[in-house]
C-alpha cells in the first residue's frame, strides 16, 4: 500500500509520516513538497494526505487536477483552513482533518481509509473473478459447439458413405 503526503511544511510531512508508519509499518510512504510536484508524479497512490494552504498551487486546485487523472486515490485533506470543507466534497475527499492534528481522529480516519483501499481492491478482484468465470463459460460453450458440429459432421459423413455404398451396391 502506498500512502502519499503532500505538504509544504517539512515538519508536518515528517509528523504525518511517523503517524502513518506507527500504524502501518509496511506501508510505502511517499512525500511531496508541493501540489506541482505531486501532479508531475506518475506514481500510483492508494491514499493521499494533502494540505490545502501551500505555496504555489493550493491543495484544492491540486486535488481538482489530480482527480482528472486518478479518480480512485483516497484523498484526505489535512489543513488549518476550515473554510474549504465544503469544497472538499467537490473533489471527492474521503475526509477533512483539521490542524493541529488530533491523534485519535487521525488514526480513525487512516484505518477507515485503509479499509476503503481494501474494499476497492476486493471490488477489482470480484470483477476479475466474474470476468474469468464468463470467459471460462464461453470457452466451454465453444467446446460444446465444436463437439456438436463434429458429431453432426460424423453423422453427415456416415450418411454420405451409406448413400454412396447403396449407389454403388457396396452393402
What does this structure look like?
By secondary structure, this protein is α/β, with parallel strands linked by helices. It contains five helices and five strands; from the N terminus they run βαβαβαβαβα. The chain has helices at 10-23, 35-40, 59-69, 85-90, 103-167, and strands at residues 2-6, 28-32, 47-50, 74-79, 95-98. Strands 2-1-3-4-5 form a five-stranded parallel β-sheet. Helix 4 (85-90) links the parallel strand 4 and strand 5 (95-98).
Write the layout of secondary structure elements.
Blueprint lengths: L1 E5 L3 H14 L4 E5 L2 H6 L6 E4 L8 H11 L4 E6 L5 H6 L4 E4 L4 H65 L4
Parallel strand pairs: 1-2, 1-3, 3-4, 4-5
According to DSSP, the number of beta strands is 5
Helix-strand sequence? EHEHEHEHEH
Can you list the strand order of the major beta sheet? 2-1-3-4-5
Beta-sheet strand percentage?
Answer: 5-15%
What number is the mean pLDDT?
88
Q: What gap, in angstroms, lies between the N and C termini?
A: 76 Å
Structural class: alpha/beta
Helix content: 55-70%
Poorly predicted runs of 5 or more residues: none
Give the radius of gyration.
30 Å
Tell me about the biggest sheet? 5 strands, parallel
Number of helical segments with 4 or more residues: 5
Amino acid at each position: 500500500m502506498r500512502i502519499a503526503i503532500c505538504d509544504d511544511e517539512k515538519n508536518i510531512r515528517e509528523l504525518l509520516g511517523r503517524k502513518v508508519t506507527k500504524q502501518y509499518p509496511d506501508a510505502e510512504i511517499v512525500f511531496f513538497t508541493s501540489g506541482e510536484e505531486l501532479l508531475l508524479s506518475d506514481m500510483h497512490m492508494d491514499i493521499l494526505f494533502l494540505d490545502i494552504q501551500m505555496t504555489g498551487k493550493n491543495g484544492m486546485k491540486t486535488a481538482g487536477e489530480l482527480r482528472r487523472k486518478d479518480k480512485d486515490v483516497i484523498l484526505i485533506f489535512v489543513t488549518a483552513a476550515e473554510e474549504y470543507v465544503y469544497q472538499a466534497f467537490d473533489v471527492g475527499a474521503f475526509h477533512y482533518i483539521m490542524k493541529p492534528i488530533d491523534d485519535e481522529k487521525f488514526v480513525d480516519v487512516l484505518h477507515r481509509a485503509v479499509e476503503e483501499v481494501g474494499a476497492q481492491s476486493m471490488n477489482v478482484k470480484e470483477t476479475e473473478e466474474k470476468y474469468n468465470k464468463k470467459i471460462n463459460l464461453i470457452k466451454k460453450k465453444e467446446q460444446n459447439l465444436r463437439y456438436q458440429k463434429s458429431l453432426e459432421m460424423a453423422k453427415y459423413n456416415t450418411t454420405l458413405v451409406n448413400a454412396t455404398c447403396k449407389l454403388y451396391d457396396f452393402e
